[in-house]
Amino acid sequence: MKDSKRPDPDNQSTFYIAKPGYYFIIAGIVATAFFALTGAAYLAIVGLVVTVFLCYFFRDPDRVVPMEEGSVVSPADGRVIIAEPVDESPFFKGMSIKISIFMSVFNVHVNRIPYEGRVSKISYFPGKFFSANLDKASKENEHNAVLIETETGKKICMVQIAGLIARRIICRLKETKCIDIFENIIINNVGTPINKNYDDKKIILINDPASNNLFEMTTLNKLRDFSTNNPDMRVLYLHTKGVSHSKNYKAVNDWIDQMLYFLIEKHPICTEVLSRGFDTVGCNYLRDYRRSIPVHYSGNFWWASSKYLATLPKMHESTTNKTDTEFWLCKNNPIMYVMDTSNVDQYLCEYPREKYADKK
């Protein structure tokens, strides 16, 4: 058997709790404390046992996945009860391979994407709540199907099925369709080369030999040159923000999620705003006169018109001041449209999705 490379995750945790469990756990703690304070020792013990089990049930531990190209990861913990070819299914036309994984109440109930790809469709089906290990459960129980299309055109469907006890399905994935609006997706990889061929012709990979000590500078200069030659484009700029931090750095991850929500999930608003004559669209407008900090979008994810980008000066690639890249976009005083501003220090303070999603 060929070994897969498995890097250790940064700051691996063994007992994270999934957010949907917070309310149940807090309720258990409050009830246990109430019973203890009122002298109901038996009920307090029961409450403590239930609360500990809730913590266990809603755990969300780190998972180390194979880095080998082409590996398919199990989307769920549990026991494989079916692995067989089927002639057809409610989700595919033609033959496919069906793999069913049964999760007991003792398994982790956080699911993961099995393979890299684009979410092309999400379908929810209301239903009953038979025990999930029964044959009829896959057809009659409440379930949610996520269809993923890989870069090679293959399709993978992950179906979450409610059971007798775990009756709530939470799916945070979205069908943004954002990738469909792009003419090209250009990846400027600075530093160590990536040896990867993309079947999707709109994805262009550039291995930039420049030093990664230049941060985003070479990418932004390439973007300026592209904009000079393509003056009628709308450009979305993203970068590997947070790569220097642990993946468990909650505040920075919230920051990234906020920007992706407004610039990807809400991309129709962004492109419509640019068509109205705005030069840039972003999140977290910031300017601090007291500390001589220029106006910018904190986090440096943004949309912009290529016509405006072409007016910007090229960055001096001899400098290694990291903040210069964040201030570059607004050097020519653009007409700015701000999608959202957190008003907190996002390196230190958490800014969860519940504070902004679907409120703008």
> Span between N and C termini?
51 Å
Q: Can you count the beta strands? A: 13
Largest sheet: 4 strands, mixed
The number of helices is 8
Backbone shape:
globular
Mean pLDDT: 84
Fraction in helix: 10-25%
Strand content: 15-25%
Q: Rg from C-alpha positions? A: 24 Å
Written as H for each helix and E for each strand, in order along the chain, the element string is HHEEEHEEEEHEHHEEEEHHE
- List segments where confidence is low: pLDDT < 50 over at least 5 consecutive residues: 1-14
Q: What is the SS-derived class?
A: alpha+beta
Going across the biggest sheet, name each strand in turn: 8-12-9-13
What does this molecule look like?
By secondary structure, this protein is of the alpha+beta class. 23% of the residues lie in helices and 21% in strands. It has 8 helices and 13 strands. It has helices at 22-37, 41-57, 137-140, 217-229, 250-265, 267-275, 306-309, 324-327, and strands spanning 79-86, 96-102, 118-125, 143-149, 155-161, 185-190, 203-208, 234-237, 280-283, 285-288, 293-297, 302-305, 336-340. A hairpin with a 5-residue loop joins strand 4 (143-149) and strand 5. Helix 1 runs antiparallel to helix 2.
